[in-house]
Amino acid sequence: MSSGGTPKKKQSLVVVDAAHGGTEAQEPSPLKNYIFLTIFTCFCPAWPINIVALVFSVMSQSSYDQKDYDGSRRLGRKALHMGIASLVIGVLVILTFCGVYNANIGLITGKGLKNGLA
């Protein structure tokens, strides 16, 4: 509060561009490069896809640092989509592996497929 008892107002940044007239500068949106998601998906068994997602995430950070906010947003979205695809594929691979492994153990011990289908 100021000395008069009234709250101070925040001042906005105004950029005057001779070619386009005066415009209010927009704050860059916070970076969404999904680096934690892509690092987490590197532990999933979908290696080519999650490595590409990690590369897109790093490229998104690089674009943001170069003040290319649209490119950064686009690459961040690609990193998100590739990360989700990698996570889904990784979970499916793990579930398939566990199912095949348990079915083979059941066949070896004689406790699986009691109807004689195997």
Question: What is the element layout, followed by pairings?
Answer:
Blueprint: E1 14-17, E2 21-24, H1 35-41, H2 47-65, H3 69-109
Helix pairs in contact: 1-2, 1-3, 2-3
Organism: Denticeps clupeoides
Subcellular location: Membrane
Main location: membrane
Give a concise summary.
This protein is mostly helical. Helices cover 57% and strands 7% of the residues.
Largest sheet: 2 strands, antiparallel
Distance between the termini: 81 Å
- The number of helical elements comes to 3
Strand percentage, roughly? 5-15%
SSE order, as H and E?
EEHHH
Strand order of the largest sheet: 1-2
Return Rg in Å: 26 Å
Low-confidence stretches: 9-16
Tell me which oligomeric state these chains represent: single chain
Class by helix and strand content?
mainly alpha
Helicity level, as a percent range? 55-70%
Overall mean pLDDT stands at 79
Shape: rod-shaped
**Could you tell me the number of beta strands?**
2
What does this protein structure show overall?
With 118 residues, the protein is mainly alpha-helical. The protein has a domain of 80 residues. A two-stranded antiparallel sheet has the order 1-2. A hairpin with a 3-residue loop joins strand 1 and strand 2. The longest helix has 41 residues. The radius of gyration is 26 Å and the shape is rod-shaped. About 7% of the residues have low confidence.
